[in-house]
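Holo model, uracil. Inputs:
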Amino acid sequence: MQVRLDKFICDATGLTRSLAKKALHRGEVKVDNCLVKDPGFKVEPQMTVTLDDAALTLPGTRYLMLHKPQGILCSTQDEDYPCVLSLLDIPRADILHIAGRLDVDTTGLVLLTDDGQWSHCVTSPKKTCHKRYRVQLAEPIGDDVALQFANGVQLHGERELTRPAVLQVLSATEVLLTISEGKYHQVKRMFAAVGNKVIGLHREAVGEIELDAQLAPGDWRHLTEAEIASVRR
Ligand code: URA
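Output:
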């Protein structure tokens, strides 16, 4: 696939678009050993791009799982909280995006990638990729809640009922909930809709991808080929 030269430099180095353009203007960039100054020059996959005579390479497509701790925000930048990307000690972490965000006080499995199609399959309501949460509740769970969730509940401010969800009761105040959509604060709002309150929320699984028990909060690892392939395209 072709990519614009200024974008190629940005993606390979982390420079801003304007700094990449300045480097081009100063004549620091060569493509296949020829000086190129045009930011819109189309780079083909087989071409070699150098900056100050050092070869540049694009990071390959990456797929990661992270064990999100409490107090970390699932966004790229924030003034009040550190964000998940700051936990990744890898080059060009800034070009990864989060496939399904968690609230700042929610812990557990976060998937990150630079494959837009793959993350769309994880998050799109049309693809019904299940997410399993371990939930701590303020009040004992009611006998009828599993049936209510199976039938769908009305969330405040939504037109449609929630999709069928599976509730597994572990104790009076601890449950597993599996949902196939990801509306804003969905799990907290579902329990609010049945008169309860979530006091602890942890995502254990997304589709067939389970949070690796070896990962301490804040740790991450690359996904395996099988995990990547488990997300239906
Ligand atoms: N539902 C919520 O309410 N919060 C999350 O972080 C994830 C799902």
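The pocket of uracil is lined by residues 102-103, 106, 185-188, 201 (CB under 6 Å). The chain has two domains: 3-56, 63-232.
Archived with the compound record.
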